[in-house]
Please model this.
Amino acid sequence: DITEQKENFEKFELLANNITDLVCISDLDLNYTYISPSFIHVTGFTTEEVIGRSMFYFLDKEEFANVDDFRQKMMSSESSIRFIEHRIRAKNGNWRLIETSSRTIYDHHGKPTSFILSSRVIEERKRAENAIIKALKDEQEVSQLKSKFISLVSHEMKTPMTSIYTGVEVMEHKARKNKLVDDTFNQQFEIIKSEVNRLNELIERILFWGKVESGSIGNVKKEINCLQFFNSLCEQYNRIQPDGRTICLRVKGVPVNIFIDPVHLEHMAGNLIANAFKYSEGRPSPSLELEFTHSKWKLIVKDSGVGIPESDIPQLFRSFFRASNVEHIKGNGLGMVVAKHFSDINNGLIKVKSKEDVGTEISIAFPLAGLN
Model:
């Protein structure tokens, strides 16, 4: 037994002498009975100057109440380990910020006898944390300024766009009334109105994204019949395709009703469907597939379009980003961002598979939790 105790003490001494944390043992009044060499290294006090002294001797008076409350909780609670952040005074008068964890030691009757305190200097960690917090705050402020600026500019653009469109219609009407209309006039009128409509659509999308970023879009979940919802959505997009293509809805598994905000679902699926048509012009019609299993349901939109370069896929969910091979196709780089935003809100997992000049498959999988 004596040999075993000696070996255990040697192991403890080896550990204590080489650990960077400040390891101490104190009685129930926080009077030190043992300190590791690291305590001496950090504070500059010798063992003789510390042993028998109270921990409060090394604390700022403003922290007495917090540390005493910490001590009381250590004595009254049987929970294993507690933590507290506080400052400790070094011999040269400087203050070191440390985090202390404590474990209460009990005798064989279950009565507390002492505390084992382990502390570490956290100044570098705190500086890093504060730097991260500041960076996040700065980023948030920049993001808010950007959103306000974009929203302001977009609002200011709506009025002149309306004026331009109205002016063109007046000119078109007068030209017809005075029989000045020819193919050139008609073509230019249509180009102007088409471009104004495109700009208005972009403004509306930017304003909507501003609302999304600011958290102004609510989340009102409703029970939705999946088949009815997606059949209606497909019909809506089929009616407006100038080339007569239609998106086909396929279903795998047993359909169930889902609980989700219909506005969220419409923006997720709608953006995927719109992109599938847009980037596969002159090619086969895209498809929409719903898959249902016992644990999840999945929305899959496939097209045989231009595809997405592999190097562009990681950037796909950045605001206003557009793939490098679609510069000739009109777009604003917000559709996928909006889809992912509402996917994240509803615990969805969005995945993209694509090959240039072959096509794209985008899926969003949702857990079936919360279903009726």
Summary: The radius of gyration is 34 Å.
